Amino acid sequence: MLIKSAEFIISNTDYTRCPQPDKPEFAFIGRSNVGKSSLINMLLERKSLAKTSVKPGKTQTINHFLVNNAWYLVDLPGYGYASVSKSARFSFGKMIDEYLKNRINLTCTFVLLDVRQKPQPIDLDFITWAGTGELPIALILTKADKLKSNELARSVKLYEDTLLKMWEELPPMFLTSAEKKVGRDEVLNFMDTAMKSRG
Ligand code: GTP
Ligand code: MG
User: Fold this and answer.
1) Which pLDDT score is estimated for 91?
2) Residue 143 lies in a domain
């Protein structure tokens, strides 16, 4: 899929103020610093359309990007960032929760996981929550450039084995590197197919 245009539309903390839900939408979620904003920039081939930082907690709002005038990519705040106050953490939870539950045009939510780390309870909790709420998800293992190929294979296997203990079927899984532009075509093609099958 060709990216012809990409523009920032709006940033807010309330799903009711998001753009009209009249176009397919894909959201990116995961722990702070996992690389959500960087991946959006990589997919859209725009250096700093989504704001990134070496410090966790950079994205704190729901950010809509309009692509090809036809669909939205949404950059979300990270979950489970321990340095913010308890109340802020709760509100991240509530903002994300309400957005995911109520956004009727959400075609797929990508759950980002750092390929260097073992499956973490908070991620498995989120995946379980999505599964029970019938929220369509796909998994993206990020920062693939940080590991050697045998280590990557081991990590992918560990994620698969862990998930297969909980479910009979695995969600779609992708391996990406925003740094080395790995996995771009795979993720974009998946989105394209998802939009076409949605009609
Ligand atoms: P929050 O907005 O805080 O939730 O974080 P985020 O998930 O949006 O992460 P962000 O894209 O801001 O990236 C966090 C850090 O990881 C930055 O220093 C990025 O440069 C780095 N990073 C992101 N993706 C990759 C990658 O594929 N490879 C490498 N080596 N670094 C990456
Ligand atoms: Mg971010």
Assistant:
1) 42
2) yes
